[in-house]
Amino acid sequence: xxEETGLxxxxxxxxxxxxxxxxxxxxxxxxxxxxxxxxTVVSSDEGQMEWxxxxxxxxxxxxxxxxxxxxxxxxxxxxxxxxLVDGDTWAVSIK
Length: 95
Fold this sequence. Notes:
This protein is mainly beta. It has a single domain (2-94), classed as Nucleoside Triphosphate Pyrophosphohydrolase (Alpha-Beta Complex), CATH 3.90.79.10. It has helices at 2-5, 66-74, and strands at 7-10, 13-22, 25-33, 36-39, 80-86, 89-94. The protein has a four-stranded mixed β-sheet with strand order 3-2-5-6, with helices on one face. A hairpin with a 2-residue loop joins strand 2 and strand 3. The longest helix has 9 residues, at 66-74. 4% of the residues are buried.
């Protein structure tokens, strides 16, 4: 988090797992949520960083699966985001 945003998060909680297949097996991303932090948001080579209300996120360009990831992060009943591949077809499974 520090590298990407300049913030130090406190008391992060694991809220889900994102995974997708790769040639060597699978790639797994752990999804954490934190509400406490210190520091000041800074931009990086990745782009301009700024605070934004959640209800305005649809106004900006994000990765294609961002909305689904936010559902997993914010819904305590969901814990898994997985890409399933059948030939050339990729589908998302959220549980």
